[in-house]
Design goal:
- The chain has a domain at 3-183 and 233-264: Rossmann fold (3-Layer(aba) Sandwich).
- It contains 11 helices and 14 strands.
- It has helices at 12-23, 40-49, 63-72, 87-92, 94-114, 148-166, 200-208, 236-250, 269-280, 304-310, 318-335; strands at residues 3-7, 27-31, 54-56, 77-80, 119-125, 171-177, 179-181, 215-218, 230-231, 233-235, 255-261, 267-268, 286-289, 298-299.
- The strands form 4 sheets. Strands 3-2-1-4-5-6-11 form a 7-stranded parallel β-sheet, sandwiched between helices. It has a 3-stranded mixed β-sheet with strand order 12-9-14.
- It is globular.
- The protein binds UDP-4-deoxy-4-formamido-beta-L-arabinopyranose.
Amino acid sequence: MMKILVTGGLGFIGSHTCVELLNANYEVVIIDNLSNSSIDVLEKLEEITSKRPKFYEIDACNKEKVSVVFKENKIDAVIHFAGYKAVGESVSEPLKYYRNNLDSTLTLLEVMKEYSCHNFVFSSSATVYGTPKELPIKEDFPLSTTNPYGTTKLMIERILQDVSKADKDLSIIVLRYFNPIGAHPSGLIGENPNGIPNNLMPYIVRVADKELPTLSVFGNDYNTHDGTGVRDYIHVVDLAKGHLKALEKVVNFKGIEYYNLGTGKGYSVLDLVNTFEKVNNVKVPYKIVDRRPGDIDACYADPTKAYEKLGFKAEYGIEDMCRDSYNYILKNKESQK
Ligand code: WQD
């Protein structure tokens, strides 16, 4: 049975990937410093899968502690989710982002080398494409970034490229996520950012649940079908399953490969609001406000390469994403009573 180290494994995408790994009979070891996740998720993973992954509450930047994990466990592959990911925060605190996102990756790669672990799956982002020259976006498009968060992802991709050239034993897969939303159908795990959400779906959910009064729609003068921003929303469970496909591939090749994980379909802000209202029979009051600096008109993937090379195809639709996102919040309200 292969043993997989999942960094950030109690986070939004990490926890959903751990569910799929455990259900597929991988042994899972999680490291997480709980800076943007909760220890409660560990119990939820056991409740969903009837298996309890090994957990270390450590920072992936701490080389001494990461080495202990590799000393105590024969790790066959690493899936690296741990990292800060709030675009706005990265603009106001760039050093925090460069230190954490780069350091954790360099530490993992060094310890992997010391323990002859050769398989690495990296959580990257469609943000590395910047403002795409055309749509849909293919993996060989030019890369550019407009905020420190995106630049950390691009810099890490460059580091992985160089490390791959130097170390022929390494197998690296870089997954570029589009917009992950939704939650596990059980409602036991999902996306619950601290504070006021930056991203669209967590904000919609809080407005629907009357925690926040109104959704601000950042601009309706974009070059899209209804003027509001278009994105490729992918269900987080589909995204998690994409990591299992990447794992199957990474242990069977040498070198480095890049894959978009998206549905290939674009939906606007108002498409999402209208679908959310219909599916959940709730109202989401909104107002049109100015554009958010740095936002692009539209962004959606060409998912062909992941389909042809990984056998990955997203199966959940936008209705499922809206239903599961709201179900998670409703279930969690119950459990907090
Ligand atoms: C989606 C659309 C907004 C909030 C970001 C990161 C990306 C990835 C996913 C980490 C846009 C609009 C949003 C709101 C709105 N994160 N919007 N009102 O910006 O596409 O991607 O999150 O990997 O790296 O860049 O996602 O959810 O913030 O915005 O109108 O309150 O919703 O303008 O059109 P984004 P988002």
